Amino acid sequence: MTFMFSHFYFIFTSNNDVQDLLIFGHNIDAWLIYVLIFFGLTSLAFVLVWFMGFLAESQSGKSIKQPWE
To answer: What predicted TM-score, i.e. pTM, was given to this entire model?
Structure first.
């Protein structure tokens, strides 16, 4: 029975509706900052892994092949 009414807790139409709501003890502004930091770190990690792979392939002495070759 509580499952049927639990979706009303999570439905909102704008950010103003959840302005005073605490999710795991933090308000929505803190979660937005956490998400931006997370996306920034993951994009930085993606670029670093790509760059390190590029350096490893370029220093191996072999020609860099396209994936379809």
So the answer is: 0.53
